[in-house]
Amino acid sequence: MFGHIMGLFSNPSREWEKIRKKIDEGNCSVIKLVLILAAIPPIAGYIGTTQFGWHIGSESVKLTNASAGIIALLYYFSIVAGIIIVGYMIHWMGETYGADAALPQSLAVAAFTALPVLLVGIFEIYPVLWLNFIVGLAALAYAVYLLYTGVPIMLKISQEKGFLYSSAIMAFGLVALVSLLVVTAFLWGSGLAPAFK
């Protein structure tokens, strides 16, 4: 499945077809891909927040190793869980849109759509807010493009239904993100805030 990464950046439509064919033949492991690539942002974030820190004025603000480690683990598990939950949601909504949304195809849509965001997680190694924001925004835009390109191909539906289906997936993703932010704010307010050096 790693061989498809470059293809999704050079010719997404053709690569989605190849991914669909490989999944139909049973020659893929999307979960392994997710488990490996989901580690990029947490590892880079751990290194960035403990070694470099954020620069606020002339000071550098760093997290303790223990605090950053706990956050990195929670970050990793939330990424993996998020992709799997979105995959199940795509599978669950398939009947509504008349899609061939078998679970492997649905998980592949969720995993490969998240790919740009996971890959640019490497920029967290040097936590500069404006740089991370710009790179993250570009990755998010490309992820949306991959979603709208991949849904009709992977789930064998028309472009019109694919647009509606993709929009429903986007809405679910936004609600899930806001929910995660609320849980994070609640946990930090309950005494589980990060510890600084």
Q: How much is the average pLDDT?
A: 90
Amino-to-carboxy terminus distance: 40 Å
Strand order of the largest sheet: 1-2
Class from secondary-structure proportions: mainly alpha
Descriptive overview:
- The protein has one domain (4-192).
- It contains eight helices and two strands; from the N terminus they run H-H-H-H-E-E-H-H-H-H.
- The chain has helices at 4-10, 12-24, 30-37, 40-52, 65-93, 103-119, 129-154, 159-192, and strands spanning 54-56, 59-61.
- A two-stranded antiparallel ribbon has the order 1-2.
- A hairpin with a 2-residue loop joins strand 1 and strand 2 (59-61).
- It is elongated and about 55 Å long.
Summarize this entry quickly.
The protein is mostly helical and 197 residues long. The protein has helices spanning 4-10, 12-24, 30-37, 40-52, 65-93, 103-119, 129-154, 159-192, and strands spanning 54-56, 59-61. The chain has one domain (4-192).
Describe the structure using short key phrases:
single chain, 75% helix, 3% strand, elongated, 197 residues
Q: What order do the helices and strands come in, and which of them pair?
A:
Elements: H1 4-10, H2 12-24, H3 30-37, H4 40-52, E1 54-56, E2 59-61, H5 65-93, H6 103-119, H7 129-154, H8 159-192
Antiparallel strand pairs: 1-2
